């Protein structure tokens, strides 16, 4: 059972992790993206216990990331699919997969990705929404946003604001 909740932190990353940051959720989302729709398909592919899968799916449905739709009445059975919020997570999962291909010690990637529009296989990357350049850690300057404030999980943003107000950056 989860020991810590980030739901009250004033931090977009912390709140995102609160919704989908356990070990199983990204794998469930990946399987739904790959076409799994039924509970037993998820159990079979992931080897997850039925109880734990029920808890994770319930949390993902409650978070608005996964949609649950009945496909059978007697007994009632449900299918699962990604919502718009869930589909918006797919590029993040792809980028994390690419990171794993590079750094997690596999000799060959277990899956590759092909872009519908051009038909080419590609390596998922994070790119600037404005110029299209690939983003690397050294290329980014964090700047407080409109919602920045000193709060749990964002103290560093508050420290940055204080240094900026003093003219020290």
UniProtKB/TrEMBL annotation:
Signal peptide: none annotated. InterPro entries: ArsR-like_HTH (IPR011991), HTH_HxlR (IPR002577), WH-like_DNA-bd_sf (IPR036388), WH_DNA-bd_sf (IPR036390). Residues 11-108 form the HTH hxlR-type domain. The keyword Transcription applies. Keywords: DNA-binding, Transcription, Transcription regulation. The keyword DNA-binding applies. GO terms for molecular function: DNA binding. Gene3D superfamilies: Winged helix-like DNA-binding domain superfamily/Winged helix DNA-binding domain. PANTHER family: TRANSCRIPTIONAL REGULATOR, MARR FAMILY, TRANSCRIPTIONAL REGULATORY PROTEIN. This is Transcriptional regulator, HxlR family.
């Amino acid at each position: 059972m989860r020991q810590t909740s980030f739901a009250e932190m004033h931090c977009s990353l912390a709140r995102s992790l609160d919704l989908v940051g356990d070990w199983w959720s990204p794998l469930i989302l990946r399987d739904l993206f790959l076409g799994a729709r039924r509970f037993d398909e998820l159990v079979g592919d992931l080897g997850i216990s039925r109880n734990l899968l029920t808890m994770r799916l319930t949390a993902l449905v409650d978070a608005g990331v996964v949609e649950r739709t009945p496909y059978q009445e007697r007994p009632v059975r449900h299918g699962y699919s990604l919502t718009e919020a869930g589909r918006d997570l797919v590029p993040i999962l792809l980028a994390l997969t690419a990171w794993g291909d590079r750094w997690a010690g596999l000799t060959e990637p277990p899956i590759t990705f092909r872009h519908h529009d051009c038909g080419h296989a590609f390596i998922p990357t994070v790119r600037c929404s404005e110029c299209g350049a690939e983003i690397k850690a050294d290329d980014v300057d964090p700047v407080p946003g409109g919602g920045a404030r000193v709060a749990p999980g964002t103290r560093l943003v508050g420290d940055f604001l204080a240094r900026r107000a003093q003219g020290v950056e």
